[in-house]
Structures are given as structure tokens and as C-alpha cells.
Amino acid sequence: MHQRAEYKTIKKRLEEPRKFIQVLMGPRQVGKSTVIKQVLRDIKLPYQMFTADTVPATNLYWISECWETVRRKMKTEGAQEYVLVIDEVQKVNSWSEAVKKEWDADTFNDLNIKVVLLGSSRVMLDYGLADSLTGRFERILMPHWSFTEMRDAFGFSIEQYVYYGAYPGAATLASDEYRWLEYISASIIDATINKDILQGVKVMKPALLRQTFELASAYSGQELSLTKIMGQLQDAGNVTTIATYLNLLSEAGLVSPLSKYSRDTMRKRNSVPKFQVFNNALKNIYCGKRFNDALTDPALWGRLFESAIGAHILNGAFAGHYSTYYWRDEKSREVDYVLEKGDKTLAIEVKSNTCGGNSGLGAFRQRYPNAKAFVVGDGGFGAEDFLQINPGELF
Question: Which of 187, 211, 298, 322 has the fewest Cβ atoms surrounding its Cβ within 10 A?
């Protein structure tokens, strides 16, 4: 079975003396539960795993009951330490207060219970962590699968990665594109929006949220103003509402609005966004063409290729290595992706073998002479080479 990079991090921390709650967060279907089960199987520590997936949100005592179960088992078995894992913890109301209460009680009573919390809703987890658990936890961010992982685990070619994306659960469905599309729609998109977002956050117009997601995903790799988005949506809304929904979609690991790069923070915030999915499958279910047809459509394939490179870049940013933007000047010279880490800047232009055109790298370097610049694709970094590295390593 494939072992993700986060396996080593989790295993190392659970083998250390008890100090922090470990919080593993990431989008749906990226293998959070699988990797924690792999670790628990290998660390030779007694453990108990619970999931809040089917627990009523109003059951305020459920977390305490889980803790008491582990305490009893620990006493009965004469164990010196135990591992408690709670999956989808954010689905329980006031979960962070309950976790704080039980964790602090164990600390006071010198009970060596190591705790791992898992969740798909990053926005709800972050809120709870900041609200009640400050100083008591460490985050482990698990992004979407990389091309290397999809290739090694499922034999994906780069063309398959560009089109089918990087959901491991959907990989075996690539030979049946109708089943693949249904899986992405129901098990990924519907589940994320209906469970991870709508059950955890008050959304006044769920239909508008869904429309915003579909439009932003379809336009992945392209710029589109929020005003134009409103003009294409069936449900009425305003710019502030759309921007709020886009933030929720980004925190859920679906699609993110990238700001235009500038050294001026206000210009970044007020710029026209460029949309970027975290996983290319989310764009391609709306592309209107099957794999073989998309592959032979140069213009379409160029857009899918750029979006796939952008998804790889964005997942590095999700893991906290850098911030991601795009750039365009007054003469419409552009750079597809701009990465910023501290005082270092990196510009990346994407070119598929079917799409050329003059890049704005030269203009960008003139304006920001200390920046590094790279081409990915035709005439530069080979796509497979680029997809096998963490873009943060290029700084």
C-alpha cells in the first residue's frame, strides 16, 4: 500500500514524549484516515480510533465519552501510554472546548494519552484551534496527491494526471469515464460542499455557493472578475458574498482565487482573481470533452496543462511553503504563477507543447530584478521533472 510523506511525520511525533495534540487536516479523499491507520499499525502502541462522521453535532458529551473509554482501557490493560484518534472531529459542536477540557485533565493527572485529531474542514478546524487550543497543538497539512504518487501507486502517465487529476479513489475508474465523473461529483464535490462546508458554516445561499464553485473550477487557470462572475450566476449575490464563498471553497481544498502579484498589499487584495483548482479533476469534469478528445484539442489541452501545473504549485502553498499569485502588467504581459516566500520571489511561466506565445518573464524580471524565473513545459523545465519536485525547493 502506498505510503504518503506525512506518514513519517506522524509516526515520529507519536513516538516522541507526549507534548502536543497532533491535528491532521486536508481535503476529502487524500488519505488522512489511511495514513493514520498505517502509523497505528506500525508504532506498537495501544490505540483507539473513533469517528464523528455519524455522530449528531449536538452530542456535546461524545468526545468526553471517547476519552473516558480510552482511560478505562488504559487502566484495565495496565498501559503506560495510549493513542486516541478522533476523525472528523469538527463535526461536533464545541469540539475544541471539549478537547481542551480532556487534554488539560490528562496533563494535570499525568495520564500519557497521545491525541490525534483528523478533519476535512480546514476552516472549522482552524477556528476551533485558534479559539480554545492555542499552544496545545501542532498541525500536519496533507495536500492532494502529486503526479509522482499517482504514477507510482496507479501507473498514471502525465497525460492521465493532467486530465483525471489526483484523487486516489477515482484512479481505478479512469477506464470508465462516466463512473469517474460520477465519483468526482458525488463523493468529492457534493460531500465536501454539503458536509464540510454547509454543515459547519452558516451559508445563506447554498445554491449560489455551488454555482460559484462550478464557475471558478471551470475557469481554473484563467482570470475572471467577481463582477463578471455575478453576471454569469443564476442566483443573485454581491461581491462580498462571492468573495466569502470563494474563501470557504479554498479552505476546503477545492478551488482558490489567486490575487495579482504586487509589493503593495492593497493592490493584491483588490485585484481581479485568477482561479486555480487544487486538483485538476475538479476542472475537467466541466471541460465538456472526454480524455481522448481533450488530448487532441490543442487549445483545450493547453488550458488543462496549465491548470495541472497550477494545482501542483497550489498544493505546495497549501502545505505552507509559500504564497501563490499571478502577474499581469499594464501592457497585458503576464506570468502564470508567482511564488513568494519571505523576501524571495519566483516567477513561473507554463507552456504546453501545443501552446506558445510570448511570456512576460522578461518584463517581470525588469520590474523585480531579484526574482528568479522559470519556464515549465516547452523550452524549459520538463513537465514531468517539475511535477516531481516541491516548487518551494526552487527558491
Answer: 298
